[in-house]
Specification:
single chain; tt1808, chain A; 6-stranded mixed sheet; two-stranded antiparallel sheet; 3 helices
Length: 183
Amino acid sequence: MSARPHMYAADDPETALKYAIQHMRGHRVQIVEGVIEPMSPTWRHERAVTRIRRQIEPTTDKLGCVVGAGNVDLPGTPNWYIPDLAVVPEQLEDAEAVTPDKTLLVTEVTSESNGDTDRIVQRRRYAEYGAPLYLLVDRQERSCTLFSEPSDLGYTKSVGPHPFGTSITLPHPFDLDLDTSEF
């Protein structure tokens, strides 16, 4: 007797696509402008994410936040992101996904295969959906840029790009200097 597949009827293609990628066993994928992208970071990539996480966790613990690579939904678009690192209030820890405006910080670390996605597409979309802070760690350019003050047209303020080794100040509520020397 074969197992019966889980059936799901969606009223619209956006909902169906987002449901499908959430239920792909053994794979983490995101959707960027309707294109399904498998998530397969390298160890060097993960090292940068780990360095950031270790530096911000004491502060995020005090703030009552969760740090991780959870699901970020952009309703009304064919986008479902899995940021390299995001900070959200712990009362959202049981949510299947959050919208960017519910985050305190979103961080993307570029890869050679999709650096422009992080630099251009996701930066624009995170701003459009109200992510208050977007930290771009550009491994190809060996620099970090912090974007803030989101608007419908993009972020209106940026600090950087600063070469690796230059501290980046994360503003309130973090109020800490991020050491970028080991990215």
